[in-house]
Fold this protein.
Amino acid sequence: MVLSNRFLSAVAKLGLVAGSAYAEKEQIWPANTDLLESMLFEQQGFNSQNSPATFIVPCEKVTFGTGRNGAAEWLRTAYHDMATADVENGIGGIDASIGFEVNRDENPGIGFNETLMNLAAFLTPRSSMADLIAMGALFAANGCSNGSVEIPFRAGRVDATGPGPTGVPRPEQPLDEHITSFQKQGFTPQEMIGLVACGHTLGGVHGVDFPEIVDATDDNTQTFDTTNSGFTAFDNTVAVQYVNNVTQNPLAFGHNETTRSDARIFASDGGIEIGRMATSPAYFYKTCQDLLERMINTVPKGVTLTEPLQPYPVKPSRLFATVNSNGTMSLTGYIRVIGTVAANPNRSIKLHIHPRAGVTCTPAKPCTVSNNIPAFASGHVMYGNPPLTFWTYPFTVEVPLAQGISGFDVEVIDNINGVTNSTLHTNGGNGFPFDDTLLTQPQLSCTETHTEGLMNLTVAVSSHTLI
């Protein structure tokens, strides 16, 4: 059994200044996509251990070995997973079937298994391998372009339970077969040119995998362009060098004419599209953004993707409550708030606690409001100018047991030049929910260290739920 079969059986705009594109539609917390939202946006700093981006961003950070680049491998994995799609009949696409297909001769190289092994660490019931493969392609393009490519992410892909059909395009195929293959995937001949140029802006051809194209000396790699950044920069250099006839791209000017697939594809319209991509970096980035977004959103019939995920302006996490002996309960957790790159010492937050159902707040018996809470730690997207940044605020709030907790609002308070401004975040009007009906009490619980899996769990049950 290959490694990739093991993981299968074991189971937006990024980099904008806060407030521009993210306020179009309020997201209601919690949602099934919350873990994926954290993976997308909390790439460095607090909570960054949850994000696959730490493997390949910045772009030159990780290689899979001599002459190899992780971001290029992740992008290649996504394309090979999608490449056998038949969009007209709703078959295939990004569905993680690549995990069952790594031993096919159309999928040479160990990069697929290594990519899947990287991503398997983030595989959960709420993050399918197919979603992770699509996210990996997004990180490769967005990260290696420093946000010049801004692919939004939709969730909801479903993992295949077996291999898909064959049909990944090969370098030795004639042009008409490539055109037919890309049309089956849903791309026109012009879009085929763009998608190949976008895919071949990173990495190169490995001799160990393609000895008929590049000399097989250990893991000898011939990159697609000649610049020092050609291995790791997602830019239009591969197009510029092809148009100027100075490229070392082995799929365009390699010693084996039969495998010059890039040359045949780039010249198929007389060089018009590759010329546009070479002339205008903006056109190149926009073309790549559109085509790669369509690539990762190609899914089998019956799979419905979500709207593009956007970061919550305010997001709670790790909420927990314990019952105290003095007639109170302590609610603890973290509040993540979109902020500026530098810490803002004049910003704090307050929590306004909603009482348990049936309890009314009055002036004489007001509901609990926390004291001002200062920032604790930051996290941010690792690309963009400036990058999207968050600040996290830890809190502990004591609430009378008689009042209870059904949720809370978050007030963000800014003091600018002596003037205080506050914004109350109500999570769509109903507050951020919390259920105090059953509360596990870790200080009264224990795990039997000598008996695997045995736990003595103490739970506090609200008397208001008893009949």
